[in-house]
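Sat 14:20. Reprocessing the chain from the morning session after the first attempt stalled halfway. Input below, unchanged.
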Amino acid sequence: MNEYDHLKIEKKWQSVWAKKKAYKTGQFVKSGKASAGKKYYVLDMFPYPSGTGLHVGHPKGYIGSDIFARMKRMQGFNVLHPMGYDAFGLPAEQYALEHNISPKKAVEENIKTFEKQLSIIGLSYDWDRIEKSGNIGNSYVNAVTDNTEIFSALEWKSKTEKEKQDILMKYRLAYEGYSEVNWCPGLGTVLANDEILEAPKGLVSERGGFPVEKKIMRQWFLRITAYADRLLTGLDGLNWSEHIKEIQKNWIGKSEGLIFSAKVKDTDITIKTFSTHFEACYADTFFVIAPDHELLPKLLEGLPQKDEVLKKAKEIVTRRNSFPEGKNVEEHKEIDGIFTGRYAIDPLGNGNLPIWVAGFALANYGTGIVKCSAHDERDFAFAKKYNIPLKEVIEPLVIRPNGLEDSVKLETPFKERKAVVAVIKHWSQDKYLGVEWGNTGWRGFVIGGIEEEEDAVSSGLREIVEETGYKNPKFIKSLGGMVHAKFYQTIKKENRFAHFEPLLFQLKNDERLDISGEEEKLHKLSWLSPAEFESFITNQDMKIIWDRVMEREKPILNGILNEPSEFKGREVSTVREEIANWLVEKGFAVRQVNYKMRDAVFARQRYWGEPIPLRHDKNGIIHELLEKDLPLILPEVKSYRPTGTGESPLANVHAWVKKGLETNTMPGWAGSSWYFLRYMDPKNKKVFADKKTIEYWKNVDMYVGGAEHATGHLLYSRFWHKILKDYGLTVTEEPFQALHNPGMMFGADNRKMSKRWGNVVNPDDVVKTYGADTFRVYEMFMGPFNASLPWSMDNIIGSRRFLEKVWKVSRGILDTSPKMSRRLLDTNQKLEILLHKTIKKVTEDIENFNFNTAVSSMMILVNEFEKQKKINKKDWEMFLKILSPFAPHITEEIWHELGHKTLLVTESWPKPDKNKMKEKEVKIAVQINSKVRAECTVALNMKEENIVNMVKILPAVEKWLSGKEIKKVIYISGKLINFVV
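Finished this time. Tokens:
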């Protein structure tokens, strides 16, 4: 075959691979092979079979994982690489409703399209492991903790079954309760926080963009908060991007703080507050209670403004609910509020502090009540808006940033010094005196040390006269408390811990003394307007003082403590734990850990989801279905559409309701939280996976899928896996050891591929025109795997030409005519070195998902192969092996044309030879009196004497040496030779 006919080649080898089951996962012990038992589980996040098929963006992750899986097989691993479909849930059901067909039928039809598309790309899945039925029943965990031991036997016995159930609901991992949820009327179901988005007019569903509102509803929950700490600590051992880890950490939102109790004046109410900023607790001047706190109505009893406050609280809640949960505080800076009319007696002796209602206090976080101070940006802004008095107990501390000349020098002791900062105003104009230190470049104000016998004012007056010569300064006022700074004093050559006292002075007139020449050299003086001064100042400590001059009040978030007296003069950042211990020991507070993450809603008011295997009896008692009644299969229904009442279509199935079966279904993430375990042992009819099989496969070694699942599937599956571990059903703490996230594929217009924009590119068309191998190579060559990039039909031609070049070079090796036979001789040294370097690079790049640079290095290698008159067949075969994961069809065809009977995809991965990567010759520079005059290639092991003699007679060198006396020859091995003449 002389022409590169991709359609014929790809169809041929896909058929052969399928017939020979080339990608079938081996048993977990393969006797007779050195690699027996060495496993590797490579998995993609399965697609939703919710539309008419894939566009070119969808296979990006599948191709990446396939390349990785192919290399691992060739490296001798027993690879498990399955494919399936995330068939249950909103995407599939919504598609079915939009096309007026049953979800089951829609999924089955869509899967046929998906399988056809996936197969023509040449993905090496073990298709024997897919569950064709799409329903493996309710293999669920009975995640119930029976905490009856906390009650006396008599007390427990006296309770009704319903009372017992209600009590146990507080401890179970799976529990039923009423809660405010995200209700989407358009979809007819409750949505999790990660399934909603913020839009200009409020919250909308991620799927379809339907409006979302807050609503109290009966729900099933999974107590994911019970696993919060393990979910946090487990991240440390995972080979995931720091970005994804950080997203999960922030979503979990662990806060370690203190609980303070305070009595409400003129009532019998005691309120509790949760604080993470307890180091500034002596600055607290007011309380804030959440507008939807259950205690608020009781707190307002007997007050004339009760109705007004409750009305305002309701408005705040309504407005806050238009933001995604957790975002109103961080992004919207919600500071609207109203005074309740009540005061709480501060336990630390700060007096009677007013209690306000504000949206930044959350009823479901901490205690729903917070203490507020001047040392928090949000609290500060709220206090300023409502004229609430503030008290400061922290003075600012500025530490010079690293990398500057005056940055603090490590392991150098500090010398403390009190100093005055004199801000000097002009006698008649709105200008201030700027000082520039010529020896340091600092720009700011007059600064001087306060001597022992001086106070700050007298020191300031003295420094003004000495440094500026102005005779008649007048003290105006103090500019607040001290400002502290740590820096390196470049003149004194010492670390300085300065305590600046800022004061404002004004000159009476322009009378001025002559200043010393030394002072004049040290300081350059300039009169500047306020606007000019803004850009004049160089250091942050002086900028803080300037803000005070301009009366721009800002909160001090970190620095030196003034109170409590036991910690006066200490840095807040270093004393936090000591203060916590002290407050607890004194009985002022108790420790508590809180999390932003809420328990996961585990119910959907839809039809297309796993049915929950529970039954409600006539007394309201909930029973688990017996083993003999499982699996619980969804019944056929007349209408799949949501009822709109908050109940699922199952509530209209008489036989279902008569049995008392739960009418809510599981959310889409239920099945995706553990499906990877089922693929270890998919044909097992008794359990989801045999114990020995699980002990062998353990967990997924490499997982590939979108970063958008960070707070959904990736978090829930980790939680689910830990539950299974606790019940002895798995053997690892984590489900996915390594994770890579493919970037999004945009249309040529740089917009997300969508029918709406008309920029969707079908992979079927690309494969038909250019071939699956070209498609695979191009998707990996476009750019970094995790980058979002636009598709280009123009740029794909380069990848096609690369494969055509591979085909062309192969024709030369296959040609046995006398003219071409010399191409089978030994490869030259340069090409051999490049080959082994490329093998090393491609291996490392695939391991790290740097596919674009792997393709680039192979393109460079093929260009070198093409230039050669002599090509070693074995060297070319090694190249085919490393290209094979990217372009399996063309390489398989060439492999067999070279006379091989075995499948290339089952061959061993080549290992780079370190000895063959070493250069044996090197190009050196030839210099005459240190000026480069020529270049010369020499053997690395060549003696210096021989190199000198060889170089001297080179025509390009000889003319520079002619008639000259060589006084000295300098040779630096492998780099240069210099003739001093």
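The longest helix spans residues 796-814.
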